[in-house]
Task: structure prediction
Amino acid sequence: MKPRTQLKQWVSLQHQGQLIRGTNKPYVEHLFAVAEMARPVVTLGYEIGLCHDLLEDTEVTQSELLAALLGFGYSHDEAYAITYCVVELTDVYTSGDYPELSKSARKLLEHKRLLTISPAAQTVKYADLIYNTIWMLKYDPKHAAQYMAKKRVLLADLNRGNAKLRRQLSNLISDDIIKSDHDG
Result:
């Protein structure tokens, strides 16, 4: 079995029972969508997109992810590159680790941290935000304008990833989308 197929099955198992908020769809559908968006525009984008929430949303550790990737047949360099980007995409400033900080303080620190992540990780972040924005528009339109405003602020500074995907995200979260949505 190919490494990518093994990884896909393993990630699905790790996220088993998780659902996309507001739906009955398995959470892995989000991961597959992000992986497919990132695949053509960044090396190992499929794998990074597939794994981007593992360390945040499952019990999998960084070392377990690395071991799994090596076990599936990814080269040492590939496994380290994937793991490195997944770590970059994992929230650092969580309420569990920083209970003394307010939510807004944690969000600001997380925003600043995201500006330092690699171009590959930023590209996968664009794909994640594209998916999440589409989800917001469909399942939580009441909060979509506020969400998109926050993402415009982030995207203004998050500029090291793939230009095509960044432009796609920028168009999606533009003021024009919100205005036309409210006008129609």
Remarks:
- Residues 119-139 form the longest helix (21 residues).
- The mean pLDDT is 95.
- The chain has one domain: 3-183.
- The two ends are 49 Å apart (CA to CA).
